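Chain X:
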Amino acid sequence: MRKLTLITAIALAVGLFQACSGNKSSSTTDSVVTKTDSSKTTTVKTDTAMAANPDSVFVRKAAVGGMAEVALAKLALTKTSSTKIKEFANMMITDHGKANDELKSIAKTKNVMLPADVDAEHQKKMDDLSAKSGSDFDKAYVSAMVDGHKKTLDLMKDEAMNGKDADFKGFAAKTAPVVQMHLDAINRIKDNM
C-alpha cells in the first residue's frame, strides 16, 4: 500500500512538473510513470489536465499560506512586545492551525499531496521578518499580515465561487469569513500603530 501511495505521489509530481514546465498547450493526454523495484514493475497513469486543474492550485496555495501564517505567528510571539500583536498571533496559530488540519483531512480523502513546507516567497518573508526587531518588526509583520490576508481572502472567495471540487469549495466558503475577520483585526491594529 505504501508503494502505491509513493508511486501515486511520484506520478502526481511528474504531472505537476509537466504542467508547470512552461508548456502552454491545452493537452489532456495521460502520462504514464513506471517504477521498477527488484520484485515488480508498477505503472501508474495520471491525467495531466487534472494535475493542472484550478482546485490543485488552490489547495497548494492554501496549504502553503496556512503553514506560513502559523510560522509567522510563532515568530511574532518571540519578537514583539505588543499585546495586540501577540493576541493576533495566537489567533493565527489557533485558526490557521484548525484550517490547516481540515485542509489536510480533505486532501487525504482525495489522495492529494500537500506541500511539506512553505515556498520560496514565504520563506523569504520569514527570513526578512526574522532579521527585524522592535517597532521595525511590528510594522513589517502587520504589513505582511494585511497583504497576506487580502491575497488569502481573494483565493478563498475565488475557490468558493469557481472551484470544481465540492469539498474544496466548501472549505473555501467556510474559511473566507474567518480570513475576513483576521483582515479586519489586523487592519485595526495597523490603524492604531
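Chain Y:
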Amino acid sequence: MIRARLFIVLMILLTLTAKAQWGEGEEDPDEKPKFKDRIFAGGGLGLGFSNYSDYFSISPLVGYKVSSKLATGVGFQYRNTRYKSISPPFSTHDFGVSPFIRYYVFPPMFIHAEYEYLNYQFRDANAAKFRRSYGSFMAGAGLFQPLGNRAGVFVLMLYNFSYQNPVSQYDYSPYQSPWVIRAGVTAGF
C-alpha cells in the first residue's frame, strides 16, 4: 500500500515538472509525420539479488505512434532466475511477448493496456522442472518524461487482472502480486 501511494505521488510530481517540457503546440497540424518518425523502440533491464535468488531480465519493445495521443506496439521479455537457497540450486528461463496499446491522456501521463503471454519454468516439490504458459491481461497508467526530441524514460504501474493467488504450495504463479511496476527507456529512429 505504501509503494502504491509513493508511486502515485511520484507520478503527480513528474506530471507537473514534465508538462512544461513536453513541447505542446510545437507541431504543425498540417504536417503529417513520416512513417519512420512514428516508430519507436526501447525497453528495460532488470537485476535482482537476494539470499533466496538472483535474476536478470531484458525486455525490449518496439512500437508505432498511430497519432500524437495513441501508440501501439509489442514488448518481448526474457528472464533468468537462479534459485540459490534451494538444494540443489537451479536456474529457470522465462520468455514472453506482450502486445500493448497506450493512450496519452495529457502529456506526460498515459493509460496502458496489454496482453502478456509468458512461457515460464518452475520446479515442483519433487525437484522436477516443468514449463507452463501463463496469459495475463494487464492495465494501468504511467508517465513518459522526454529526454530531448527522440528519447525519453517511462515508469508504468499495471494491475494484472488475470492474477490468481496460489491455492497450495504445489500451485505456482510467475507473479507474486497482481501489481506490476516497470520502468525503461524509449528512443525514436
